[in-house]
Each structure stands twice: as C-alpha cells, then as structure tokens.
Amino acid sequence: MVGSMSTRYAALLRGINVSGHRRVPMAELRALLTDLGHTGVATHLQSGNAVFGSASGDEGTLGAELERAVEEHFGFRVDVLVRTGRYLAQVAEACPFPADRLEGRQLHVTFFDRSVDAARFASLDAAAFLPEEFRLGARELYLYAPDGLGRSKLADALARPALNRGVLATTRNWNTVARLVEMTRD
User: Which residues contact 18 (CB under 8 A, 6 or more apart)?
Assistant: First the structure.
C-alpha cells in the first residue's frame, strides 16, 4: 500500500477453539487476513486474537469482512470485533483497577460492539458480588475477579442474556489485552 497510511488493528474473534469446537487454526487465520490485503499479520494464542495493518479506517467494515471470510473458509459464522491499537492502548490506560498489582487472570475486559450505558446493569446488585467488581468504560467493561473468571459469580451474572440483549461482547484477560496493546503499537 504505497503512499497510504496503515493503522494497526486487533481482531477479536468470539467463541472459537473452545473445547475443540469451531476450530480456526491460527496459521489459516493469518493467511485469511493476508489474503484480504492486510499487512503485518500476527496472531496471539489460539483463542482468536489477531493483529494486522490496514489502510481502511472502519472497524465495523473490517470486522464484517473477516466474518464473511471465516464463514466462507471454515463453514461457520464467527462474530468479530475489530479495534484500533490506539483504542486498546486507551482501554489499558483507563483501567480503573490496579492492573500492575494484579495477576492477569484476576482482571478482564469485555469489549462491546457499541457503547453500553450503566442503565443496562442497574438491576444487578453489585454489592452482592464483592470483592468482585466491574466498571464500565465507553465500549468496554472492566471486571475484577480475584479468584479468576472461571469461579466468578459476577461474570456469570454479567453474561445473562437480559443484560446483553442487542450487543455483541467478547472478553479477554488482562494479559491478552496488554499483549494486544504491544502487538498493535504503530
């Protein structure tokens, strides 16, 4: 892409490679992204995290393009959220919890496809889940779960369909968020 500026993005694929279902090998995901014309493609872990450069400036279009490519190649639909590296860095900087003093398994970020307001979670008695806590950002939710996500009663409550109606959400632990920030630095 000579003469055009490229932005670094992260693609967050939702619900792949879990318990052997909806298998998306990372080498094939990298090839798909490269075939779509993206540059500097890399993946992180096996759970659907990819980074790439693109001259496109539209996260929604990039996500929809990758969703179509995955469905055509693998034969099943996967929801994809695409975020700029700059946005991920802002999410890390705005973390309301002391990330530098917590283990990565204790802190998670749920990324939403759009802004979500506090009214959506008003029915949740947050005090009932202490010491677990959550805080809303612009298009993300930060979750502090001292015993990890797998044992978190608050995470289960936040995942209820009634609270998530009409939004696409995918969650990453803090170690993954921090690594994606590093991988998407311009």
Answer: 47
